[in-house]
Amino acid sequence: MRDNDRVSDSTIPHDGSRVRDSDPSERGSRLIVAIDGPSGAGKGTIARAVATRLRYRHIDTGAMYRALAWKATHDSIDLSNEAALSALADRINLDVAEGRVRVDDHDIAAAIRTPEIDTASAVVARYPRVRTALIARQRALGTAGGVVMEGRDIGTVVFPGAEVKIFLDASPEERARRRATDPSHTAGRGVAAIQDVATALEERDRSDRTRAASPLTQAADAVVIDTTTLSIEDAVEKVMEIVREKGSRQ
Ligand code: DC
């Protein structure tokens, strides 16, 4: 692991009160759980809950692209300059884990959830050299297993050998509704107009799905879960069932 990639186990519960038989790691296998899908499909909430239940680390790779976009904007790096952005991706002092997002020990967890960074992160994520640098960090963070990693290309490119691959999806209308009412995305700006959010989401989806370098796509061996009408609890339980099934075969 690089010195500048730090993951804390601070959210691991110490009370021993969790359902222990749901954790395949109890049987000696620390799995890699890859959760991919478009914005608003529920990846963040579900990945976090699954990681807590398993006592695994949760890594939000989207936050890495967002942090890079934030730092580039902060340092006035031109978003069309792939060489400068990939050099930044190599050297950036990044700490992304368990809901924390820090660059140079500066807390930017809220600052990266703005419409400007939504757009800028989709731009930086299109550059192959930027992706190579961030994918290397993601592999370093997850390779030992015991991790729930969410993103767009975790099951296809970052960890094609992940034991558990989930592709979360939901209808475009429901994804826009969730984004428009998500306080972590609308902090201080009130509830966003759903139609504006839907238009921006559609544009980012198009960018994520059509880029040449690791586009958003379902891994052939991923289990698809449509969360449009599912409660969070039911979606988490479905993922846990898949984890238990895969874990018991390890
Ligand atoms: O999941 P998110 O909305 O926070 O992701 C921000 C941007 O980064 C989005 O445009 C998709 C992109 N991304 C990516 O290309 N690959 C990942 N593994 C994670 C996110």
What does this structure look like?
The protein has helices at residues 43-54, 61-74, 82-91, 115-124, 128-142, 154-158, 172-181, 183-186, 194-210, 232-248; strands at 32-36, 57-60, 94-97, 100-103, 106-107, 147-151, 164-169, 223-226. It is of the alpha/beta class and 250 residues long. It has one domain: P-loop containing nucleotide triphosphate hydrolases (Rossmann fold, 3-Layer(aba) Sandwich). The strands form 2 sheets. It has a 5-stranded parallel beta sheet with strand order 2-6-1-7-8, with helices on both faces. A 3-stranded antiparallel beta sheet has the order 3-4-5. The longest helix is centred in the last third of the chain and has 17 residues, at 194-210. It is globular. The relative contact order is 0.20. Residues 1-21 have low confidence and may be disordered. The structure holds 2'-deoxycytidine-5'-monophosphate. 2'-deoxycytidine-5'-monophosphate is lined by residues 39, 61-62, 65-66, 121-122, 125, 151-153, 204, 208.
List the SSEs and their pairings.
Layout: E1 32-36, H1 43-54, E2 57-60, H2 61-74, H3 82-91, E3 94-97, E4 100-103, E5 106-107, H4 115-124, H5 128-142, E6 147-151, H6 154-158, E7 164-169, H7 172-181, H8 183-186, H9 194-210, E8 223-226, H10 232-248
Parallel strand pairs: 1-6, 1-7, 2-6, 7-8
Antiparallel strand pairs: 3-4, 4-5
Helix pairs in contact: 1-10, 2-4, 3-5, 4-9, 7-9
Bound molecules: 2'-deoxycytidine-5'-monophosphate.
Residues 39, 61-62, 65-66, 121-122, 125, 151-153, 204, 208 line the site of 2'-deoxycytidine-5'-monophosphate.
